[in-house]
Amino acid sequence: MKEFTKTEEIYRLFIDCNQKVSTDTRKIVNGSIFFALKGDNFDANTFALTAIEKGCKYAIVDDVNLHNGITVFVVEDVLSALQSLAKFHRKQLTIPIIGITGSNGKTTNKELIHAVLSKKYNAYATFGNLNNHIGVPLTLLQITANHEIAIIEMGANHQGEIEMLCSICDPDFGLITNIGKAHLEGFKGVEGIKKGKSELYKHIRNKNGKIFINGDDAVLIELASGIEKIYYGEDASFDVHGKLIPNNEFVEFVWNLKEKKLDDKPLIKTHLFGHYNFINVLCATCIGNYFKVDEDLINDALSSYLPEMNRSQVKKTKSNTLILDAYNANPSSMILAIRHFAKQSFKNKYIVLGDMFELGEFSENEHQLILEELSTYNDINCLLIGTHFYEFKNKYLGFSFYKELNDVVEILIKNPITESNLLIKGSRGIKLEKLVEYL
Fold it and tell me: Which of 206, 23, 212 shows the shortest CA–CA distance to 116?
């Protein structure tokens, strides 16, 4: 039998394909190298020859019967080969790489940082939400000799995952956005989340790299001992400090450098809903300043940034104004969104929430805590969607509960909501964005 193809040989094929990679025969990039990954319900080895027929130059498989040594090459495990290829490619790169993780705000921070750094550099950032054991390698493989800096988002739902992703992308700089109640099931509680997320700090510490850190976050400070830090937050002693101007639903703030006054600094008005996003824009400001992006360019990047992908998006339909934050949800982010929305002087307020997933044994309690929070507001109509919330149907009689999204759609068709403001938030699997066309 032909020996397994080595990483160095796959890298030669990868370069011969001009760094073009495909993993899905429905989205083949012409002239690319195809990796036949496996999933719970598919084995892409069966599509390898189809990938070649559709325009791929080479295919990497782990079915020895497909090997021909010309267009199809066999490895022991395709996923491991993809990860090893990305790791090898990372060693060829000399640009600074910023690794980001955290319970909330990873993607928003990544997008804001990318917007700021792109004002000066040819910056590359994780596309969409490709932040897992497959997404991180694919992201790294997109970085070319033309890029000057990269921002890599890393997600995790159990301990050891961030450590593994760091071993692949080897970040020089680290950012943990926060530690919150996300993926409680996999991490086995908040202490497990601290341990898992701080694997990024451990990597940076061992590499003698630097971290960007919210100096006002006591949890992060405790985890970050022994690492060189660049601080941001509200205290004037931090490298970059700022102040939120809480006069409306969007983030407006001023900022300055260490020990310098905020007086007479320009007011930065953003399109980000939720005062909880203040620390995110301040973080991007800090990173931009560290990498010597001009102040005016930083301000312009943040004031012109428009949220996408159902993350803190403000959508005005013919009938209503929607705060669409339906990409994902966990107890920490949901409470913050509810409280900020509740403070607004909107007329006819609705909160539409979907179940929060991956909470395991904590699920019942965390959903009840959300309902208890909602119970403190008398001026908000509440629609709760999903089986976890539905379990409380008989306890919270003032709310509307629905097992399925389609049940809500039927109600909205018969009884449309008009001239109202709605916060829409839930876990990805609930797909609350489908409600937009009915609102």
Answer: 212
8-state DSSP, 38: B
Q: Which residues pair with 251 in a beta bridge?
A: none
3-state helix, strand, coil in the chain (%, to 5): 40, 20, 40
CB 283 within 8 Å of CB 214: yes
DSSP 198: T
Residue (of 114, 195, 102, 186) closest to 150 by Cα position: 114
In angstroms, the CA 417 to CA 437 distance is: 12
Percent of the chain clearing pLDDT 90 (strictly above): 79
Q: What gap in Å lies between CA 336 and CA 274, rounded to an integer?
A: 8
Consecutive H or E run containing 49: helix 48-53
Domains of the chain from N-terminus onward: 7-76 (3.40.1390.10), 93-304 (3.40.1190.10), 313-438 (3.90.190.20)
Backbone angles phi, psi at 243, to 5 degrees: -140, 130
Instruction: Compute the average pLDDT of residues 162-167.
Output: 96
Residues 85-142: tens digit of each pLDDT: 999 999 999 999 999 999 888 999 999 999 999 999 999 999 988 999 999 999 999 9
| Average pLDDT over the chain, rounded to an integer | 93
